[in-house]
Amino acid sequence: MKYLFLLCMGLLFIGIPVNAQFNEKPILNLENEDKALLNWGYFLGFNQYDFKFNYKNDPGDTDILVSKSIGFNVGLIGEMRINEFLDLRFEPGLLYNARTLGFPGFTEEQDAIREVKSTYINFPLLIKASARRFGNWKPFLIGGASTSLNLGSNETALDDNSSGTFRMKKWVYNYELGFGIDFYLEYFKFTPSIRGVFAISDELVPDNDPNSPWTGNIDGLRTRGFFINFTFE
C-alpha cells in the first residue's frame, strides 16, 4: 500500500490527464517519439532495500532482523531501438538507502545494532519489451542485468563488527525485473514503473574471527530492492 500511495502521489504531482490518455480516439501526442534509433531521458524515484540471509546453521528464532527505510533514485537513460516492440536501455543511476540490522544474543545496543548506509552507483543493461501503442499509452515489461558499486561498503576497512564496522563487498551483481506504462503527453513521454532488483553475488565481508557472533553463522548475504521510478523522455 505504501508503494501504491507513492505511485499515485507521483502521478498527481506530475498532473497527468489520465482519463484523456485512455479515450477511444484521443489526439495522438508525439507520434514519432519511438521511431528514432536513440532516445534519451532521466528518472527520479524511490527505493526500499532489504537483505536475504543464508545461514550455515538453522538460527531458529534468532534470525537477524532488518529495519528498512525509503531511499531515493536519480539517473539518466539511454535507449536504442531494436524494433517496434524491443528496446535496449542503459540506465546509470545513483541510489541511496539505509538499513538497520538487529543481531540477536546481545544485551548492549551498541553491539546488537548495525546501521548500513549504502550509496550505490548502478549500471543496468536492460531489454524493454513493449506492447503495441494504444492511443497515448503503452504498457511494457523490462528486465536485465546490472552491476552496482557500493560507495559505503567498508570492504577495505581493517575494523570489523567487534569495532562497530559492518563490512560489505564493493561490487554487487544483480538481475532486475519490472513493468510500467509509457504515457505520451503533449511535450514529453512520462513513464511510471515498478521494478525489483535482486543480488546474485554474496555481499558479505566476514569478520576476522571465523566464530564471530555477528557473521560467524552467515553463509551468504544478498540485497533485494524494490524501486518506483518516474521517467521523463
What does this protein look like?
The protein is mainly β. The chain starts with a helix and ends with a strand. The protein is built from three helices and ten strands, in the order ααβββββαβββββ. It has helices at residues 2-14, 18-21, 109-112, and strands at residues 38-55, 65-67, 70-81, 86-90, 93-102, 113-130, 137-150, 171-184, 189-199, 218-232. Strands 1, 2, 3, 4, 5, 6, 7, 8, 9 and 10 form a ten-stranded antiparallel β-sheet that branches. Mean pLDDT is 89; it is low at 11-18. It has a single domain (2-23, 43-232), classed as Beta Barrel (Porin), CATH 2.40.160. Strand 8 (171-184) and strand 9 (189-199) form a beta hairpin.
Please summarize what this structure is.
The protein has a single domain, classed as Porin, CATH 2.40.160. Helices cover 9% and strands 52% of the residues. It has helices spanning 2-14, 18-21, 109-112; strands spanning 38-55, 65-67, 70-81, 86-90, 93-102, 113-130, 137-150, 171-184, 189-199, 218-232.
